[in-house]
Amino acid sequence: MLTKRIIACLDMDGGRVVKGVKFKNLRDAGDPAECAAAHAHSGADEIVLLDITATSGNRRTLLDAVRRTARSLFVPFTVGGGIRQLDDAAAVFDGGADKIAINSAAVRNPKLIGQIAGRFGSQAVVVAIDARKCDEGFEVHVAGGRVPTGRDAIQWAREAADSGAGEILLTSMDRDGTQSGFDCELVRAIAEALSIPVIASGGAGSPLHFIEVFREGRADAALAASIFHFGIENIAQLKHELYDASIPVRWPC
Amino acid sequence: MIAIVDYGAGNLNSVKKAFEYLGAESVVTNKSELVTAADKIVLPGVGHFSSLRALNSSRLQEALLHAVSAGKPLLGICLGMQWLFEGSEECSEIAGAGFFPGKCRQFPPSVKSPHVGWNSLTVQEGSRLLRGVAPDSFVYYTHSFHAPVVAAMVAGTEYGLQFAGAVEQDNIFGVQFHPEKSGDVGLSILKNFCEV
Fold first, then answer.
1. Would you tell me which of A249, B84, B146, B148 could form a disulfide with B102, CB atoms 3.0–4.6 Å apart?
2. Side-chain half-sphere CA neighbours of B3 within 13 A
3. Could you say which DSSP state residue B95 is in?
């Protein structure tokens, strides 16, 4: 039976893993290669590394972190942040990533999705969408959540899938870092509109939140960062609780 | 030495990295001489079945078929496994090698496609490739087309229907999943291939 995936996300700033609340107030949470290995060991089905302050100046730092993290990681490994063109993606794949995540660059230039998918396959292209609730649904934001685009999240997710995206990484900006639960309404709206997998992100705080987003949100995978750092929630323990709730998970790993 | 055949279908670093981790010497190559010189061959690949056009129209295919008929072990991964069959509905004008009968088909409409994530294997006894792999082990899949259930199937997976997760016959092996991304289970399968 196809299982629901639990994905550990490492937000990286200047070569270190950090975690903030609603994209602000960053705290240090460790070395990316060490964090990735520890999460994989405790049962993470995938690892995502996001360079949250990606600038041309720290490309080298990112690629170095990708190489070090990929070296002994044998679960799917996604890298995002600062990928603006095909060459950026190629460098990240060359460093050992299996998938890349693109966000602002895809909104600015949707053809980029097809370009990367054409060369590396759709399975290697994750389109990340940061969405915030507005009067008429959910609005897409870019530039790390700082810039509203006026675009509807469901429409954009459809367009991304049609352009060749293999998965959608959907972050609720309203819930991110709050540990108050995933936005099941947002996740379900997009999961039901697409045939490609939807990864729910933003708001994980307890095993119950994962159960909700898999049952009510129809998510294919759920991603969390903060609860997996600082020893708040162990992935192995989380998977046991999901298993007890009859959610199919990979266990033992 | 293991030759990982590069015919332009995606990123092959992960496969090479897994062999490195296992201490097995491997080379990613698009040169038929290196395929001929290798002890074992891995045919990876992701994406559309039409990517195999590049393989079929190159000298690589000739070298590959020659090596297989000489008894060298071949492991097809994902699209590489689909090539071992007669073809695929995804692109009917491209022929597979036909080592196994039947064509690769789409999943039924009752399930989402592509099939992405960790799914369990029903492992059959006696497989050399899956030696030591527990009966319901999980492996990582990402694909839209699947190979049919055949006599040479050594592990099946359920997703809307049962399809061939792994096949094995003499020196020809194929896995639809990605052993290089399937944690310890996947590494043990690659290790078995190194030792056949």
1. B148
2. 24
3. B
Q: Residue with structure tokens 């990735």?
A: A36
Tokens of B73: 């072990």
Q: What is the pLDDT of residues A134-185, one digit of tens each?
A: 999 999 999 888 899 999 999 999 999 999 999 999 999 999 988 899 999 9
- Total domains in chain A come to 1
Q: Does A40 sit within 8 Å of B116, measured CB to CB? A: no
Give a yes or no: residue A165 inside a domain.
yes
Residue A207: which CATH number?
3.20.20.70
Q: How many domains does chain B have?
A: 1
- Interface mutation target, options B112, B118, B133, B180, chain A, most CBs of A under 10 Å: B118
pLDDT in tens, B56-108: 888 899 999 999 999 999 999 999 999 999 999 999 999 999 999 999 999 99
Evaluate whether residue A219 is within a structural domain: yes
Reported residue count of chain B is 196
A2 contacts B117? CB cut-off 8 A: yes
For chain B, what is the mean pLDDT?
95
> What CATH number is attached to the domain comprising B155?
3.40.50.880
In a domain, A55, yes or no: yes
